[in-house]
TrEMBL record:
Names of required cofactors: FMN; [4Fe-4S] cluster
Domain of life (superkingdom): Bacteria
Originating organism: Oceanobacillus jeddahense
Signal peptide residues on this chain, from the entry's feature table: none
Residue span, FAD/NAD(P)-binding domain: 392-634
Keyword Chloroplast: no
This protein's name: FAD-dependent oxidoreductase
Taxonomic lineage from the root: Bacteria, Bacillati, Bacillota, Bacilli, Bacillales
Length: 670
């Protein structure tokens, strides 16, 4: 086919097979180790297996399970895989069969979590080379004895044998992320005075013994890979010069089939979150480290770190940065990337926008989800998008995430779909976030929806606010109301906090939405009052703050919570704080707004009751939460119409992910 010829030429490097140890991998696209949090009692569920089968079916060359403990003292949680005994083998066999059936290859990532693990899972202390606590877990670990080291070394070998008995294609040993092996390797974490500490030869001893143990249990017919950090970015930690020496020594064992290169250490607060770079972080930001390692070894080297575009993956391979490229979060957004490349449908690839909703879920020990791919982690539960026998006319009111996903799925099934959106643009709150310079990558999601709407021949009506009478005149078989929500205003509801407004207030009261729409001008100083919080709410309020900062406006942010943007997860909040504070924003947590007098605001610490005045304020941007816009729905239901459905924020104000999930589910049921 012409289409395939074009795609193979454009992406010839990433579509080329790669020999890794005893196996031939069908292409150069990797889905690196990550936790979908779909296991139960340490064993893969049907949803877990379906998750990985979807990746294999989509064409990825190689995929790796999330890190799994090989020893009880190095635990994470039981909703991740656990490889302590033979009970894991039947689950491995089902997983391997599911992936192999679709032509894929899958490895188990084996680890001991060390000081980064959850010590409360088994009421055991964490084990580590030295009593150095993780800045995240903040629990001092037990310093391992010689016999304990040997016990863990043997546990890696036995775990690898169970992976082989389970039919997997190999294992990746985790020598990264501040976990146990990484802690032995790093001068930052390893302060031992025996043969396992001190110089690099001693610090590598534990890893080399693990490799020997694994090799002795599985032989040379099973892939053995190592993931390690080429730059821990902490004082005393591994740097690129030391990493090159580590790489050469690993290759010289003749027992390691590839090196997977990452950055940072999870023992450090900042590096823990920068390990998963969110928008607006650069793309492919760890590829240079992979190239440095590739220059000193001959075995395959993998590059990771925010590669969301197949063209960038192609460039990384073509220009010799690495032999294989990870597109992991991209496959959470769309597991069919390779398939769509091969079919010359790259415009249909749902792009990862770096929102890190997937990571937020995982860090909260919840099943993996994507901001706008509702099938991520629940494809088995949702079921396929099946063609319909009885085609219906479906009218959707509202072009936000809920309405867009409902329209896409309904039209894909064969229904005739029309969208009516009162605004001049699609997107709802997702568009608002995407209007800020630091979050504008989110606009890719809207462009994807727009392209799918056009391709599916959905009738789109913008700038059209439709009444009940007009809606009924359309003679629809099904009516879906995704009318969203509107920001609450000061004094509009009895449950909102009281605020004294004295005479002649000069301060303008505006919503975050008005700021993000660019409707407010002539501002010198603004105060953001994030009173309601909430995952989506705080994101909206802080996006307004960033918009103003980008316009060189002085900004102070007031919130009653322990920290500003408390509901925004750390992979986004950490770089957010860097941007806010380096731009001169003033953060005032633990505070409530009490009064407005002319151009002055009085805030009060909610614990000490101490008051403070913020002077010369032009604009106050209160975030008090949203109120569902369900008026039209209530009118139709009151009149007895039963073919009416309501979705997303119109039901209750929540997240984009909740909205797209509801749209996907309803459209499958029509």
């Amino acid at each position: 086919m012409i289409g395939n010829e074009i795609s193979e030429k454009k992406f010839s490097h990433i579509l080329e097979p790669l020999k890794i140890g005893p196996e031939i991998i069908r292409n150069r696209i990797l889905v690196s180790a990550h936790q979908p949090v779909l296991a139960e009692n340490g064993l893969p569920t049907d949803e877990y297996i379906q998750y990985h089968q979807n990746i294999a079916s989509g064409g990825a060359g190689l995929q790796i399970t999330g890190a799994q403990s090989v020893h009880p003292t190095g635990m994470n949680e039981y909703n991740c895989l656990v490889n302590h005994d033979k009970s894991i083998i039947p689950g491995y066999q089902k997983l391997a069969n599911a992936v192999h059936e679709k032509g894929g290859k899958i490895l188990a990532q084996l680890t001991h979590f060390g000081a980064t693990g959850w010590t409360g899972v088994l009421d055991e202390p964490a084990w580590a080379p030295s009593p150095v606590a993780s800045e995240i877990m903040r629990v001092t670990p037990h310093e391992m004895t010689f016999s304990e080291i040997q016990e863990v070394v043997e546990s890696f070998g036995k775990a690898a044998k169970r992976a082989k008995d389970g039919g997997l294609d190999g294992v990746e040993i985790t020598g990264a992320h501040g976990m146990l092996i990484a802690s032995f390797l790093s001068g930052f974490a390893n302060h031992r005075k025996d043969e396992y500490g001190g110089n690099l030869e001693n610090r590598m001893r534990f890893l080399l013994e693990v490799i020997d143990s694994v090799y002795n249990h599985v032989g040379d017919t099973f892939i053995i890979g190592i993931r390690f950090s080429a730059d821990e970015k902490v004082e005393g930690g591994i740097n690129i010069l030391e990493a090159k020496e580590i790489a050469k020594r690993l290759e010289s064992t003749n027992k390691v089939d590839y090196l997977n290169v990452i950055s940072g250490t999870n023992l450090d607060y900042f590096q823990r979150w920068e390990h998963w770079p969110a928008t607006p972080a650069p793309h492919g930001l760890f590829a240079n480290l992979a190239r440095e390692i590739k220059n000193v070894v001959n075995i395959p080297v993998f590059a990771v770190g925010r590669v969301t575009d197949p063209s960038l993956a192609e460039k990384i391979i073509a220009e010799g940065y690495a032999d294989m490229v990870a597109m992991t979060r991209s496959h959470i957004a769309d597991p069919e990337i390779v398939k769509k490349i091969q079919e010359n449908r790259t415009e249909d690839i749902r792009p990862c926008v770096g929102a890190n909703y997937c990571i937020k879920q995982i860090l909260q020990s919840k099943p993996v989800r994507c901001l706008y791919n509702p099938e991520a982690g629940r494809s088995k539960k949702l079921g396929p998008i099946s063609p319909v026998k009885n085609k219906k006319k479906v009218i959707i009111v509202g072009g936000g995430p809920a309405g867009l996903e409902a329209a896409r799925v309904a039209a894909t099934r064969g229904h005739k779909v029309e969208i009516y959106e009162k605004d001049k643009q699609l997107g709802g709150q997702l568009r608002l976030w995407g209007d800020t310079p630091t979050m504008n990558e989110l606009q890719k999601s809207l462009r994807w929806f727009e392209s799918q709407i056009d391709k599916l021949d959905i009738n789109l009506n913008l700038n059209t606010e439709i009444s009940k009478e007009e809606l009924l005149d359309l003679d629809a078989d099904e009516i879906i109301l995704a009318t969203g929500a509107t920001p609450l205003k000061i004094g509009s509801e009895p449950w909102l906090p009281s605020l004294e407004i004295y005479e002649s207030p000069i301060v303008k009261l505006v919503t975050p939405h008005q700021i993000l729409d660019g409707k407010i001008t002539n501002i010198n100083k603004a105060v953001i009052w994030d009173q309601a919080g909430g995952e989506a709410g705080s994101q909206t309020a802080i996006s307004a703050a960033e918009y103003l900062i980008n316009e060189n406006i002085k900004v102070e942010i007031v919130s009653p919570f322990f920290t500003i943007a408390e509901d925004i997860h750390p992979t986004l909040r950490t770089p957010l704080y860097k941007r806010l504070l380096s731009s001169g924003a003033i953060l005032k947590p633990n505070s409530e707004l009490k009064s407005i007098n002319k151009d002055e605001l009085v805030i009060q610490n909610i614990y000490s009751n101490e008051k403070e005045t913020i002077k010369k304020v032009d604009v106050l941007v209160p975030w008090l939460g949203n109120k569902s816009d369900d008026k039209l729905y209530k009118e139709l239901v009151k009149d007895g119409f039963n073919n009416v459905h309501i979705l997303g924020d119109a039901v209750a104000p929540r997240t984009v992910e909740s909205a797209t999930n509801e749209g996907a589910k309803l459209a499958r049921e029509l």
